[in-house]
Amino acid sequence: MDINKLRTFLTIAKYGSFRSAAEKLFLSPRAVSKQMDQIENELGVKLFNRQKNNTSLTKLGTEFIVTAEDIVNSYTDAYNKIQMESASDSNKILLGFSSQNQSTFVQQVFEKFLAANPDVQIELREESGKRLQAMVAANRLHLAVTPEYGADTSHDPAIGVKKLVEDEMVVGVSKLNPLSKRESIDLELLRNRPVLYYNNSESTYLQDVFYKKYDGIFSKRQIQRVSSIEQRDLLIAIDRGIGFFPRPLASVESTLNPMIKFLNINNELNTYYSSVLIYNKKEDNPVVRQFIASFK
């Protein structure tokens, strides 16, 4: 089965429509639809309920997500292994990141190094935070940038960690909500609101993190995953929920989301946030070792 078609299928499952997937993959909706027709014909089952203005997964389509992810992940692991071996004596760095939010920190970290080493090439991989750690530990990636939500986060013994930023979380509230007039807030005042978060996989990891982090103020049912950062931000902007954001990115987020007010949290809770660079302690790629050694 064609790996690119499986990636297209997973993109549709992630973003909720053929059109959204087409935009993310820089394809036409017609090309996306044709790929899905080919997968359905190959499998001999219907994966989608297609209507004029709506597309949804069938029961078999939902079940197929796990299989497709396993196939794509296995292929990605094998591909990355080959790339790592070919990059061992080259100027290529394989860098993973877990969300678009991390791109700001990636740029800050690599700006001076890439300016001083113009021949170095960066290849990017987007994966969940847990998967990034496993890939770095197994020498499937050179480096990864990922958030952490506790100062005592544990890591695989093979992994080295350098903190890029360390601060706290703030809560984003729509400016349509009267509570946005404040500069800080007690989360008890928001306990009945949906808490929206973005994750690039079906994992409930962040749901569990936020449930424990905010001491059960919000039920797990309230803490809801959305399929894109853009969707999360728009829903918060129109007062359909709230969200938690890293304070170091609040000024950037304010520019991108003028209808969201970012409030400090008054409660005596774990509001810790950091973004970290992780690497394999036994990394032998000379370019990667040079970068790690130069990191301040």
Automatic annotation (TrEMBL):
Give one GO term, molecular function aspect: DNA binding
CDD domains listed in its UniProt record: PBP2_LTTR_substrate
- UniProt KW keywords: DNA-binding, Transcription, Transcription regulation
List, for all copies, the residue spans of the domain called HTH lysR-type: 1-58
Which family does this protein fall into? Belongs to the LysR transcriptional regulatory family.
Q: Which InterPro entries match?
A: LysR_HTH_N, LysR_subst-bd, WH-like_DNA-bd_sf, WH_DNA-bd_sf
- Provide the gene name from the record: lysR_1
Give the organism's phylogenetic lineage: Bacteria, Bacillati, Bacillota, Bacilli, Lactobacillales
A Pfam family matched by this chain, by name? Answer: HTH_1
Record bears the keyword Repressor: no
Organism whose genome encodes this protein: Secundilactobacillus pentosiphilus
Gene Ontology, cellular component aspect: protein-DNA complex
Name assigned to this protein: LysR family transcriptional regulator
